[in-house]
Amino acid sequence: MKVLVNTGSFILGFIQEVGRLFLFILKTFKAATSKWYLKNIFLQIISIGYLSLPVVALTSFFTGGALAIQIYYGGNQFNSEVIVSSIVALGITRELGPVLGGIVVAGRVSAAIAAELGTMKVTEQIDALRTLSTDPYEYLVFPRVLAAVISLPVLVGFADIIGIMGGWLVGVQSLGFNGTVYLQNTEAFLESGDIISGLIKASVFGFIISIMGSYHGFNSKGGAQGVGRSTMNAVVSSSILILASNYIMTNLLFSS
Amino acid sequence: MIEIKNLNKKFNTNSVLKNLNINIEKGESAVVIGQSGTGKSVMLKCLLGLIKPDSGMIKINNVSILDKNLSYSNKNRIKIGMLFQGGALFDSLPIWKNISFTSLQGKVSEKECKINALMTLEKVGLKSNISDLYPSELSGGMQKRVALARAIFSEPDIILFDEPTTGLDPITADVINNLILEKVKDLGATALTITHDMASARTIASKVYMLHDGAIIWGDDVSELEKTDNKFSLQFTRGESNGPISHRSN
């Protein structure tokens, strides 16, 4: 009996949480139709996009290099110059660039948003905003969401270039490939659709990261421990949602 | 003028406000006293529109603020200043931007906003050289003064104070109390303070109300505070552990 009660209350709690998140997203969309705080949007683009560039670039560079080695030693080394360059290019642009970039940014940005808004919540700063006739969704949430949706594709664009360069560098320096031929093969195999699909994914990931960070921050309770819990939940939920939505989008974009 | 009638609020099964009634006349400085957990903050948050009550009526200057058409983001809303318990200053903004926050969101130039902020800073006894500092660089007493400056910046009709002296030493607390008294008089505003600091209540109040178990059980002029025969008020005012109010562990 106790198991049934616990299962029931877990399911009800989950449905409630989904409903609350859905309302939060609706309020954010509504905020998009009201006042735009351009300075806040600009500052968030710097914080989410520009300041995430080093960590995304490093992740992408090493991933590109490791991928080249894996394909070379794991596969048939005959005609490897063509295979390595094409798989690195496709792998980075279609999957690894957006997904790894998204997860790295989720760790950095979603946590920062949840911690910042969570602290504002528990110290009554969000209530103070309301008493000063300012809608916190317009002032705090929407600028972060818009900045992330704009910044992530740009970051992934850079990640694609750097990841391919990582593969190229390993190919030329360690595997003895001809640099010019490697780049020619990359160019020959890569289609604009591969890059665009990755950028579309990145935009969706940006939305997930910023919404989950803001949502958990807004629902922080109980001081430092509550803010810590919100930060953890923001990172975990945005990482899982990135992987799940990546699967769905890959199906939609490539299965046809 | 603030009018609250039959206000009820429950959190799950816990009834916090139970048919709460209070009338505060224009220009009056009312102080609501009561133990922690009796519903003082919930009452204030209902008044601010931060919590939606289950039933009842709240009118400010004869306008019902529970009316669905009167949004708090409405540009024509009643001007309310609020001093939060912990100050609630925005960490990411310097002092002058905290004070002039509302004007900065409008069409007033930054230069003009800063001048007005510095003038308000002076009104609460702070020097202009702190205007570019951030809230974390100030002491607790200074943060409260800045929060007071922010509350009075737009010259509100109504000012609400949530435990204005909590966490302050007695001397700083007295300075804050006197500042509140002075500024409320200067603006001719209606003030509502919630506190359990009796020294603060005696300084600020023209009328005192006792909140117990979610309802106002006594209210009179501050001069009646010591003379009342209401046992709840007497026990609370004297800070005695024995009496009709049982000790709560909240």
Describe what you observe in this structure.
The complex is a heterodimer of chains A (256) and B (250). With 256 residues, chain A is an all-alpha fold. Chain A has one domain. Helix content of chain A is 87%, strand content 0%. Chain A has helices at residues 2-32, 38-49, 53-74, 80-122, 125-131, 136-173, 179-189, 192-218, 223-254. In chain A, α2 packs parallel to α6, α6 packs across α7 (179-189) and α6 (136-173) crosses α8. Chain A is elongated and about 65 Å long. The termini of chain A are far apart. Chain B is an alpha/beta fold. Chain B folds into two domains: 1-79 and 158-165 and 181-250, 3-Layer(aba) Sandwich (Rossmann fold), CATH 3.40.50; 95-154. Helices cover 31% and strands 25% of the residues of chain B. Chain B is built from eight helices and ten strands. Chain B has helices at residues 40-48, 95-99, 101-104, 110-123, 140-152, 170-187, 198-204, 231-238; strands at 2-11, 14-24, 29-33, 55-60, 63-64, 80-83, 158-162, 190-195, 207-212, 215-221. In chain B, the strands form two sheets. A six-stranded mixed sheet of chain B has the order 6-7-8-3-9-10, with helices on both faces. In chain B, β1 and β2 (14-24) form a beta hairpin. In chain B, α4 crosses α5 (140-152), α5 packs parallel to α6 (170-187) and α6 (170-187) runs parallel beside α7. Chain B starts with a strand and ends in a 12-residue tail after the last helix. The relative contact order of chain B is 0.18. The interface between A and B is medium-sized, with 14 and 22 residues.
Gist of the model:
Chain A has one domain (36-254). Helices cover 87% and strands 0% of the residues of chain A.
What is the percent of helical residues of chain B?
Answer: 25-40%
How far apart are the first and last residues' alpha carbons of chain A, in Å?
A: 47 Å
Task: Based on Cα principal axes, name the global outline of chain A.
Answer: elongated
Protein structure class of chain A: mainly alpha
How large is the radius of gyration of chain A? 21 Å
List segments of chain B where confidence is low: pLDDT < 50 over at least 5 consecutive residues.
70-76
Number of domains of chain B: 2
Beta strand count of chain A: 0
Average pLDDT rating of chain B: 87
Q: What is the level-2 CATH architecture name of the largest domain in chain B?
A: 3-Layer(aba) Sandwich
* Amount of beta strand of chain A: under 5%
Q: Output the structural class of chain B.
A: alpha/beta
Strand content of chain B: 15-25%
| Helix fraction of chain A by DSSP (H/I, runs of at least 4) | over 70%
